[in-house]
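## tool: complex_structure
## caller: assistant
## args:
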Amino acid sequence: MRVTLNQLSKHFGPVKAVDNLNLEIGEGEFMALLGPSGCGKTTTLLTIAGFYKPTAGEVRFNERVVNELPPRKRNIGMVFQSYALYPHMKVLDNIAFPLKVQKAPRHIWQERARKVAELLEIDDLLDRLPGQLSGGQQQRVALARALVREPDLLLLDEPLSNLDAKLRITMRAELKRLQKDLAITTIFVTHDQVEAMTMADRIALLEAGRLQQVGAPEELYHSPVNLFVAGFIGTPPMNFLKAKITEEGELTGEGFRLSLRKEMRGHIAGRRVEVIIGVRPEHVTIGTGETEGEVYVVEPLGRDVLVTLKVGSATLKALTRPEETPKAGERVKLNLLGGKLHLFDTETGQALLKERNEG
Amino acid sequence: MPFMGPSAGLVFLFYFVPVVLTLLIAFTDMGRALKWNFIGFDNFARLFGVGGRDPFIVKIITNTLIYVAGALPLTVVGGLLLSVLSMRMHRGVGLFFRTVFFIPRAIPPVVWGFLWAWSFEGTRYGLFNGIRAALGLPVLHWLIRYPMLIVILANGFLGISLAMLVFSSAIASIPRDFIRAAEVDGASEWQIARYIIVPLLKWPILTMTAWHLMSFMNSYVYIMLITGGGPYYATEVWALYGYHVAFNQYRYGYGASVMSMLVIVNVILLLILIRAFGMRRMLERGKIEV
Amino acid sequence: MWKRVRWGWDRAAAYLILGAIAAPFLAMYVGFFLRAFGKGMTLGILPKEFGFTNFRFLWEPIAWGLGQTTMWAALGNTVAFAVTSGAVVTVVCMLAGYALSRIDFKGKNLFLALQLFLHAVPGQVLLIAIFFLLFYIKLLHKIPGVALARASLEIPLGIWMAKGFFDGIPWDVERSAMIDGCTRLQIWYRIFLPLVRPGIAAVFIWGFLFAWHDFIYVYTLLPGTTKLMSTLIQSLLATEVIDYGYLAALSLIYMIPPLSLFVLLQRALLKVPVFGGKGV
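## result:
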């Protein structure tokens, strides 16, 4: 089932939780609603589920406008952050509940519930009460309950937040696999960009109720359309430096001077003089280059080393291999043009051009 | 909506309608036959002494004032005293005392009435007179000679049950450090009570006073059980009079006018109290708009 | 170096004062018990002998004034009255409490404020009107009618209690049930009620207890021939010659059922459900 959000807005009094959101989720797609707390992603999810009525705009399932449709008639499955299992019912009854409400005959709901339980590998827990299960097990039960009626749409609200780190990584892969196998359109909400990047087909990044960018994970990573997206996606996050564009076509800032190639100069829209440069830590190489900096802190991460450098009065982070680790206090040469360079407008934060720069 | 229907219906039927009805009936001469005619303000006139006053009214008003003036302080001060003392002593013993004084509220009104009626019975079969007799003392006719006192005590200690409970939990929530600081400063128990504990109980004291003021104004059941209003109107308070006029003398119209005055006073008092105390906001915005 | 005197006159005074005030009451309570089981008094408070003759109402009919009945009949009436009243209070308050806790509707704030207000207008003052009202709707002199009137008095506070219990259930559980296809009524019945069992017990005990103890409504609105325990005791109290031991025994029997009910429902009152997950 396709889900379309047309100019969707949800206001709570003066607060605009969701502001003019336009989004299309395709059949069988795994879409992530990503953003920091308060960005409106959960509100959007709850509106799609039918708990909130849109202040403006519409929600469509396939072609049908469902603004007025109550949740119980939407044929959706939902997993809440707290799992919301019914504490007084056994696992089997919890899972089968949606079918029982529809007055399905006993042998039918029992069978289907068992099948889903098997699929999620919890068929040995059917007689337990929710209070006797671990967090991971509860999550599976919640998922089973959501899936048992073979819904058109699956909604997940921060499904992995309450799991411990290791379990989280396992479940990420499992959820992704499950979704592909079942081919159910899925929307899930998260504040963790790693989760979104690894699981989703496409990501919709929201901030303050507005859609910042929607696209495949690689798109958001390599071609962020504004400062917010660039800074939110990617860990460790992108470095930002203030710079000026000189008449000679150079980017100058405190402690550095970079020359732009001729082709690039033409791409810069308008006659902006002050810009913000964005460079990802993995694209900053230590050893050679036009820029100089002083090593401030060295943090070994095992596979890489995160080096914090001072360039002028600005701070820069770089990811290097363990073999090339500099020492704190060293003055080193840096190459900022080793990979993509991003330029952003100082006022609007919009990306000015995409730069591919071969060092 | 089916959820609110029953409660709204019952509340309407047994609260609102009666309030209105009481006022309506007060303007009639409804009697034993439950037939009525409107007689305007005649009933109220009788109450206020216009054109032939009710001979008992003055006595009754006096009784009511004495009763409330006696029971209210007893409840509040007594409750305060009991809670302060019992909370400062050994835990188990304090609990024991509080239980002793809570019992009045835990037993049925008739039994409480029975206890007092028996304890203060005028012959040597009454409890306290029996003890007096055993000690060689003459028997006292408590209920005949001091009926108002007995009634004030009976209701006052009933009020103490609640007041003591409220004050005790308020005291329990005072941070211990305040008291320890006072102890270090050398304060005696009495001084601690006077300068630390009681001032911090300002709010519960006010609420209990307001609550019991209204309670005593309207109460008559215990008085009815113990003295029946006697001997000869000695303990007849306003509310009891209203009841007697209506149900013993079958003058429902007049009785209703007596009760109406009470209802009006209640409403006025309540409005004043709401103004004074503000309204509690225990309401949460709904998270489902369906 | 100074020694703090813990046991000075200060502390002792407290014990003395409380002891003095409590003494007469203790005498009353103890005397009450002894009187029920004793025959003939001496020293005012100690019986001459012990026995069960005061409990003869258990197998003999009771006479008062012009009438006669058995204790069992009175007990039965009281049970019927209290259970009906308690049940009405429970059902009505559980319904309303859910709506007030979970649903936004017009006039909700007003209604809640009203409940507080109503609790201050005492039912005993409205008796005349209620007498007439019940007469008019033909429910006077009948236990169900009076039970209904009595229940209404406890509803305002009962609603606050119920609402409090419902407030404790996380919103997500309710949302989940909505997704799963339940109507509001189904949610109330299948999900919320099982989860507030302690609340149901509490509200029922509340309504039951007040009805069990009630005297004035029963006395005024039921005919003299229909006796409940409270009116029975009162009519015996109003006679010329009172057998105090007999009355004490009767009172004891009167007080036992609520206590046992409380003990019975203790377990239900203490059960608190675990909601699963770690968030709300």
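## assistant note: Chain B touches chain C through 95 residues (CB under 8 Å). The radius of gyration of chain B is 23 Å. Handing back to user.
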